[in-house]
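User: Fold this; tokens only.

Assistant: Input:
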Amino acid sequence: MKKIQLLAVTAFLLLSSLTALGQYSQTVVNNYATVNSKGSVAERKLFVAGLTDSETAELWRYHIDQRAAYWNQNAITPLTNDQTAALAALKSALTSTVVNSAETLAETDSTFDDLNAALEELTRHFTEAQIAEFTEILGSAPSTLEDAIYQDQSTNEFYALQCPRGKICWRMCDCAVTSLFCGSGCMANACTAKAEGCGCFWLWSCSGLRIR
């Protein structure tokens, strides 16, 4: 009986995810296909940089739903109700206004309140590596060292999705001083401007180093 109930819940969540995907325009579907055709994150960022603010916001919302649908179809356990609600809040907070303002507004600006609250809620229900799949890796997961997210401080080795236990790593290109998602570990004095954007949803132009 429990197995049947689990299958029913999984089917419902998968149907819900596919229904959400059906709400998007053909333009965003085409843009997502273009992103996945690019061989590196640098090429993907260059393409996204040429989109309008609304197209960028919609593209990331579509990506979140794509990852959720994949999760519900392939994971051992589907997304929980809390996880699904957290992702819905994240999508709702990711507006074209936020995209437009990310590079210029201060950390205290209320424009980012909803986004920062949604990101903080995400940390209660997902691991850091899982959050990266929704917010930092647009399209398929990284497969080369060029696309890595972590770098070991001692050996300079690169890791794709998470810093291995016992290692001390730099977090690559994610610690913008305008994003509360980085927390108190952000070293703002180490910021380096990156015109192609980096960090959460690739919105931030100034990225500092963060120690895990």
